[in-house]
Write a structure and sequence with these properties.
The complex is a heterodimer of chains A (344) and B (435).
Chain A (H helix, E strand, L loop, with lengths): L1 E5 L2 E5 L5 H8 L25 E6 L12 E2 L9 E4 L4 H16 L15 H9 L16 E3 L3 E3 L9 H9 L5 E4 L6 E4 L12 H5 L5 E3 L12 E6 L8 E7 L2 E6 L14 H6 L7 E5 L10 H6 L2 H15 L23
Parallel strand pairs in A: 1-5
Antiparallel strand pairs in A: 1-2, 3-4, 3-5, 6-7, 7-10, 8-9, 11-12, 11-14, 12-13
Helix pairs in contact in A: 2-3
Chain B lengths: L17 H6 L4 H9 L2 H11 L11 H7 L9 E6 L8 H8 L1 H15 L3 E6 L4 H16 L15 E6 L9 H8 L23 E5 H13 L1 H5 L2 E2 L2 E2 L1 E8 L5 E6 L4 H6 L13 E5 L7 E3 H5 L11 H5 L2 H4 L7 E6 L4 H15 L5 H19 L5 H13 L7 H32 L1
Parallel strand pairs in B: 1-2, 1-4, 2-3, 7-11
Antiparallel strand pairs in B: 5-6, 7-8, 9-10, 9-11
Helix pairs in contact in B: 2-6, 2-9, 3-4, 3-6, 5-6, 6-9, 15-16, 15-18, 16-17, 16-18, 17-18
Classes of the chains: A alpha+beta (344), B alpha/beta (435).
Bound molecules: flavin mononucleotide, iron/sulfur cluster (SF4) and FE2/S2 (inorganic) cluster (FES).
């Protein structure tokens, strides 16, 4: 076991635990964000750099600080380690920089993106981003492609976390997609647009932190915050059958794996459960899902919001949906500068 | 004249062939090591020699070798880094092309020291003709019994392969190189584990630069102590410098570490002074990634002492007033050269070569190139100087591998020492806007 402090809070964890997981054990605001690490996928992490922290003291034995900020998701703890996350201005500054980098080539098309509302990048930008962009150049774009009949790849939105590559490596028999080219031209793709077709390929959608991989059976059906998440299960020979149904009335619009408070699926589900059972009668519904993650779907979030304002917002959205009003005419919740009320 | 240990016989006709190389004393280190020394004795000599890695970072080679996990049951590998892609660096090519057996001999002696039974030379794809030269030399060495089973009748056996990359600077970073050698995408690995513990195919591995491995030959021949007498302080031995830019005699020079920078630039033995009778403006002393220094700081340290061609002297003053010996890519700019233009070329290179794994480098290198493009093309704004400074600062130290730093340092040092040129570019932009 190793005892360490993170932002002054002491925690004891087994040797070999990463700083990030030690922080998750403490919980709350001192947990570094993570865009590429995924605890249920081996070898993930280290790439996005949003989880950088400062190690002010390496260990009890060797108290020297680490020379650079380190990726907390891949750096193991040591006994007597002193870690600074939100108490270090250097860390916050670097993180702001990383978020800015992630956004300069991002299309910021949240209003038409299926991921909006449950997007890690959106959440991260609210917390650490600038209100304007210092980037004045044309953004990089890619063509959208269908990788198979169930998954849409919108590469322009991708942050190259590599999670979907690890899904294919670790959950499917044969990986048929990967990263082509390099630098900011690097793209997730199948070789010559081959279809990704495999019992577990749908999990690529769940692990994608942004809207780069979306469910073609759900695309543009609804904003996620208008759907109701319900825990449900069925007997399945391929996976645990434990899912979340995203419902509107009695209609099942979408099926996903169950994400924990860090937005991670621990029990991956098969494509049959995900894509083939959109009938409520196929499922045993357990009850409403508590969404702990601080996205707008979270019930907690809505509770704190002014209900009258929310009702207005819903009516406004309906006007847009019915085509009576154009998006640019609006100035609602998503566009207000008053984030005080939005904080869940 | 400085002593030549690597290039002594470079002008000997036919030195490319085994026969001539052998006649000039080649492969003596293999005979000496295999027949009279234990593997650890060879490592000991390398330690004594004070040899430091010639690939850029200058890490003590003997120490690196002693980190290799000898307790593990797994095979051990020696991998030679011949990816040489740092702009301004071309010394490895020269050595391999002109005197290929020097590298092959070094590989055999070093592999013996490390207990490697299979070793690789990873060469950049653009050096295909050099790869052919090496292949031929290896073939000769096999034929003469210096490679293969039971070398020189001892129980030591070694196979040596040349593997060509596909043309990526990032594959010179040692862990990206290993990935590429394994047949994967050349992305740098997260460290730890270091290659000494889990390198090629997760086995203990040493990665060394071409010149480092070639230097093992004279070290074994003359003894580590003798070798360490050449040079100054912790910069021992000789070093190949690729000299380019606005000098009278560009080329590859073998220097004894410790030659004053001024002598290196102006003496007839080396660069022969600045071309066309012009004045020196700046030097990038160790390949494109090290900080650029203006004339006064490259010839003398901030303390006013003459700067020497050593790891320590070039680094004197830190990044505020110093630079690095790096890979020995010595790029000279005369008074007419534009630092901004030169920097743009570098920025474009790093943008092109980033592997794209980590966000600050992937996005930041492209951003810097685009901003510098504005300076170059006359539509930069005053705020762009600070923006550029801030972008490089957000990259440096926050990435997986040092390519991010390598992209940031030239930008930082150019702004630090040549801010006026950036300001002039802004002024020009304003004038252009008024035309
Ligand atoms: C982006 C990048 C490119 C590199 N390219 C080379 C190279 O072309 N040749 C080389 O010897 N070392 C290169 N290096 C350094 C290697 O990672 C490694 O440190 C070196 O091969 C070790 O050999 P040495 O100890 O003999 O210097 C590069 C490092 C980085 C980060
Ligand atoms: S610093 Fe650049 S080259 Fe190195 S791993 Fe990150 S993206 Fe790749
Ligand atoms: S979550 Fe740690 S680097 Fe991405």
């Amino acid at each position: 076991m190793a005892k360490l402090t993170i932002d002054g809070i002491e925690v004891e964890v087994p040797d070999g635990t990463t700083i990030l997981n030690a922080a998750r054990q403490i919980g709350g605001k001192i947990v570094p964000p993570a865009m590429c690490y995924y605890s249920s996928l081996k070898e993930t992490g280290g790439k996005c750099r949003v989880c950088l922290v400062k190690v002010a003291q390496g260990s009890a034995k060797d108290p020297r600080p680490m020379p650079k900020l380190v990726a907390s998701c891949r750096t193991p703890v040591a006994d007597g380690m002193v870690v600074q996350n939100i108490t270090s201005p250097d860390v916050l500054e670097a993180r702001k920089g990383v978020v800015e980098m992630l956004l300069i080539n991002h299309p910021l098309d949240c209003p038409i993106c299926d991921q909006a509302g449950e997007c890690d990048l959106q959440n991260l930008s609210y917390e650490h981003g600038l209100s304007t962009s210092r980037y004045e150049f044309e953004r990089r774009t890619f063509e959208k492609i269908d990788i198979g009949d169930k998954i849409k790849l919108h590469m322009t939105r991708c942050i190259l976390c590599y999670r979907c590559v690890f899904v294919a490596n670790q959950l499917t028999k044969e990986r048929v997609h990967g990263v082509l080219d390099r630098g900011d031209r690097a793209e997730i793709s199948t070789y010559i647009q081959k279809a990704v077709d495999n019992d577990f390929s749908g999990n690529m959608i769940d692990v994608c932190p942004v809207g780069a991989l979306t469910d073609r059976t759900f695309r543009f059906k609804s904003r996620v915050w208008f759907t109701k998440p319900m825990d449900a299960h069925r007997n399945c020979s391929k996976c645990s059958g434990k899912v979340v149904l995203w419902m509107k009335g009695d209609d099942v619009l979408r099926v996903t794996g169950r994400k924990d408070q860090h937005g991670e699926v621990k029990e991956f589900i098969c494509n049959e459960c995900r894509f083939e059972h959109k009938n409520i009668n196929d499922w045993t519904v357990e009850g409403p899902r508590h969404i702990d993650h601080h996205s707008v779907i979270s019930q907690n979030h809505y509770e704190k919001i002014d209900l009258i304002k929310l009702k207005k917002e819903v009516e406004r959205q309906l006007e847009f949906q019915s085509g009576k009003k154009h998006l640019t005419e609006g100035n609602g919740l998503t566009q207000t500068d008053n984030h005080e009320n939005n904080q869940g | 004249m400085g002593r030549k240990l690597l290039l002594e016989h470079i002008n000997e006709p036919g030195i490319q062939t085994f026969e001539v190389y052998r006649k000039k004393g080649g492969y003596a280190s293999v005979e000496k090591a295999l027949k009279t020394m234990k593997p650890d004795d060879v490592t000991e000599e390398v330690k004594k020699s004070g040899l430091r890695g010639r690939g850029g970072a200058g890490f003590p080679t003997g120490m690196k070798w002693s980190f290799i996990d000898k307790k593990s049951e797994k095979p051990r590998y020696l991998v030679c880094n011949a990816d040489e892609s740092e702009p301004g660096t071309f010394k490895d090519r020269y050595l391999m092309e002109k005197i290929p057996h020097a590298l092959i001999e070094g590989m055999i002696t070093s592999s013996y020291a490390l207990g490697a039974k299979t070793s690789y030379i990873y060469i950049r794809g653009e050096y295909m003709y050099v790869a052919m030269i090496l292949e031929k030399a290896i073939e000769e060495a096999y034929a003469k019994g210096f490679l293969g089973k039971n070398i020189l009748g001892t129980d030591y056996s070694l196979d040596l392969y040349v593997h060509a990359g596909a043309g990526a600077y990032i594959c010179g970073e040692e862990t990206a190189l290993l990935e590429s050698l394994e047949g994967k995408r050349g992305n740098p690995r997260l460290k730890p584990p270091f290659p000494a513990v889990a390198g090629l195919y997760a086995c203990p591995t040493v990665v060394n630069n071409v010149e480092t491995i070639a230097a093992v030959v004279p070290i074994v021949n003359m003894g580590g102590d003798e070798y360490s007498k050449i040079g100054v302080g912790k910069s021992t031995g000789t070093k190949l410098i690729s000299a380019s830019g606005h000098i009278n005699k560009p080329g590859v020079y073998e220097i004894e570490l410790g030659v004053p920078v001024e002598e290196f630039i102006y003496s007839e033995e080396y660069c022969g002074g600045i071309w066309k009778g012009r004045k020196l403006k700046a030097v990038i002393a160790g390949g494109s990634s090290v900080p650029i220094l203006p004339t006064d700081l490259i010839l003398k340290t901030a303390k006013g002492e003459p700067r020497l061609m050593t790891y320590e002297s070039l680094a004197d003053g830190g990044f505020a007033t110093g630079t690095m010996l790096g890979s020995g890519g010595f790029i000279v700019l005369d008074e007419t050269a534009s630092v901004v233009e030169n920097l743009y070329t570098f920025a474009r290179f790093y943008h092109h070569e980033s592997c794209g794994q980590c966000s600050p480098c992937r996005e930041g290198t492209g951003w810097m190139e685009k901003i510098l493009h504005r300076f170059r093309d006359g539509h930069a704004k005053k705020e762009d100087i600070d923006l550029l400074w801030d972008v490089q600062r957000k990259i440096e130290g926050n990435t997986i591998c040092p390519l991010g730093d390598a992209a940031a340092w030239p930008v930082a040092s150019a702004i630090r020492h040549f801010r006026k040129e950036f300001e002039e570019a802004v002024m020009n932009s304003l004038e252009l806007a008024h035309v």
